[in-house]
Amino acid sequence: MILDKDTAKKTAELLLQINAIKLNPKNPFTWASGWNSPIYCDNRITLSFPPIRNFLREHMAKQIEELYGKPDVIAGVATGAIGIGMLVAEYMGLPFVYVRPEPKKHGRQNQIEGFLEKGQNVVVVEDLISTGKSSLNAVAALKEAGSVVKGMIAIFSYGFDISAENFEKANVSIHTLSNYEHLLEQALDTNYVSENELITLQSWRKDPSTWSAN
């Protein structure tokens, strides 16, 4: 869910500006899953641009307080959201932990890194939502550790139906600064894409697993 359209479009503008998001309908990218995609997103690039990372941390912190109040802890999902999660926690003056995809194979075999007490209210920070599987895996680990997960906030979401279904099924609240719909609107407004390319980009989102540029 998007709280503010202006923030959504501005976020999309900044991500396109630094190529954190690339749109290429004619020569699609291949994801690790094997899907062909006209979009590639790597929000870790934002960490290299201080004005942009500051914009993201401040708007994420603002939305966290509006949605969930001030939690006890901010949790980032490894590895993509460790950086932005730490920035948000620092801005809010809160403790920070991060959650691995699975427990380490050695040492203390931690899945959650950092100090976390049972019963603490936690908000999870993500950089990108696709199907939601890895994000919800982190939520499950936090709950298993005794945390009260208030919800999640992310920089960007592709807006897949399966993602919405997964979060609803898990009863986890999710909000994002921007999403695919607002990205396309911003890209068209600034002539980043043409009307024909917009049609191609919209068709991909309807069925990404079988989509082809031809």
Structure description:
By secondary structure, this protein is α/β, with parallel strands linked by helices. The protein has a single domain (5-206), classed as Rossmann fold, CATH 3.40.50. The chain contains seven helices and ten strands. A six-stranded mixed β-sheet has the order 7-6-5-8-9-10, with helices on both faces. Strands 1-4 form a two-stranded antiparallel ribbon. It has a two-stranded antiparallel sheet with strand order 2-3. It is globular. The model has no long low-confidence stretch (mean pLDDT 93).
Please sum up the structure shown.
The chain has 214 residues and is α/β, with parallel strands linked by helices. The chain has 7 helices and 10 strands. A 6-stranded mixed sheet has the order 7-6-5-8-9-10, with helices on both faces. Strands 1-4 form a two-stranded antiparallel ribbon.
List keywords for this structure.
globular, two-stranded antiparallel ribbon, 41% helix, Rossmann fold, alpha/beta, 214 residues, 6-stranded mixed β-sheet
Which SSEs are present, and which pair or pack?
Layout: H1 5-17, E1 21-23, E2 29-30, E3 36-37, E4 39-41, H2 50-68, E5 73-77, H3 82-92, E6 96-99, E7 112-113, E8 121-129, H4 133-144, E9 148-157, H5 161-170, E10 174-179, H6 180-189, H7 195-206
Parallel strand pairs: 5-6, 5-8, 8-9, 9-10
Antiparallel strand pairs: 1-4, 2-3, 6-7
CATH uppermost class: Alpha Beta
Give a short account of the largest sheet. 6 strands, mixed
Shape estimate: globular
Mean pLDDT: 93
